Amino acid sequence: MKDVAVIGIGMTKFGELWNKSIKDIFVEAALKAIDNAGVGHIDSMYVGAMSGGLFVGQEHIGAVMADYLGMNPVPATRVESACASGGTAFRQAYFEVASGSSEIVLAGGVEKMNDGVDVTAALATAADQEYEVYNGITFPGLYAMIANAYMHQYNATREQLAAVAVKNHHNGFNNPNAQFRSEITIEQVLNSTLVADPLRLLDCSPVTDGGAAVILCPLELAKQFTDSPVKVISTAQASDTISLYERESLTSLKAVSDAAVKAYKQANLKPEDIDLAEVHDCFTIAEIVASEELGFFDKGCGASAVEEGKTSIEEGTIPINTSGGLKSKGHPVGATGIAQVIEIYEQLTGQAGKRQVKDARIGLTQNMGGSGASCVINILEAL
Ligand code: COA
């Protein structure tokens, strides 16, 4: 297997992009990445997209995007793993380069969620239809059950959940591509509209349109294109039961810990070697539990860690979601995993501006599908 590097990045602003089609959004991100990498062509492309069919009536996303990007006849593959589609597309692109089958590969992701469909129902197709959705479950509902169980088991407080949202909005305030660039307070979170008890509006990631893309190539070629390539040192994936009721514990996300064990082993690292992480905070409770499964905190300590500032840029031992995370930056589901890689790339190459983590060398992305039935983790290192 060859060593693989990321050599260029591009993304659209995340938000409600009413005047852009799904094709416009993807192409804007892809052209920015191609331009940023300075490559004259690509050999292949992967596009993470959860549900083009349900959101905008468009399937066959790989071919559609290659065509609109003017890249025919390159192989173009759509990758779907619910909200982990982007991270999984990145992993597939990595393998294509690492295997030696292609040299310059684009990994992208896109979703257009704001075109008037029933987003909650469309997203719920990633849960178990028979045993969960037919009985009225939604994604806010699933994560609300996790939050209730966690608060009960570990005496965690509502304020601690809210602290995740406050931190991520604080970080997103300094991200020009974020959907919500507004600081919020604990009180605002606690007083926002109840969505699924105990989760409130400001505990939830929003409904977002957006696209993101990165360019990968063999590390041995990377210096031809950039002075600051970022090496992919690990990529790991795991799955778990799709239904919450089948899990041994409601307060664990086993796909995350299983993928993390593999990812750390592959990179020969421990959790304490990671300088920063982009974690899948689709709801505030998700960031807390995932931060424990990634080994950053002991079980039951993730909630207090956020409150104590251990995950902040300013004073954290492990800054989490410096981009603003899904909560503030936005969550166009298929693009999210790629946008996480983009934040780590910017951090490791010193381009993160006011969000910059000092001396960041190694960054991790954790991208999760549904209520944790799939998880992909990528670890990158500055050279
Ligand atoms: N965070 C912050 N503000 C939000 C927000 C969010 N998640 N969602 C909406 N808003 C804001 C809107 O900008 C709007 O503000 P405005 O009145 O100043 O324009 C206001 O809140 C109402 O927005 P609206 O679109 O009517 O909200 P909604 O009730 O239709 O949707 C949620 C709110 C939380 C239900 C929706 O964002 C949601 O479903 N989020 C979860 C998405 C999800 O499950 N993703 C997959 C995870 S696995």
Compile the SSE list and pairings.
Blueprint: E1 4-11, H1 22-37, E2 44-48, H2 52-56, H3 61-68, E3 76-79, H4 85-98, E4 105-112, H5 119-124, H6 139-154, H7 158-172, H8 186-191, E5 194-196, E6 199-200, E7 209-218, H9 219-222, E8 230-239, H10 254-267, E9 276-279, H11 284-293, H12 302-307, H13 325-329, H14 333-348, E10 362-369, E11 374-382
Parallel strand pairs: 2-3, 2-4, 9-10
Antiparallel strand pairs: 1-7, 1-8, 4-7, 5-6, 8-11, 10-11
Helix pairs in contact: 4-14, 7-11
Coenzyme A is lined by residues 83, 120, 123, 139-140, 180, 195, 201-202, 204-207, 282, 331.
Could you explain the architecture of this structure?
There is one protein chain. The strands form 2 sheets. A 9-stranded mixed beta sheet has the order 3-2-4-7-1-8-11-10-9, sandwiched between helices. It has helices at 22-37, 52-56, 61-68, 85-98, 119-124, 139-154, 158-172, 186-191, 219-222, 254-267, 284-293, 302-307, 325-329, 333-348; strands at 4-11, 44-48, 76-79, 105-112, 194-196, 199-200, 209-218, 230-239, 276-279, 362-369, 374-382. The protein is built from 14 helices and 11 strands. It is an alpha/beta fold and 383 residues long. The site of coenzyme A (COA) has 15 residues, from helix 5 and helix 6. Coenzyme A (COA) binds next to helix 5 and helix 6.
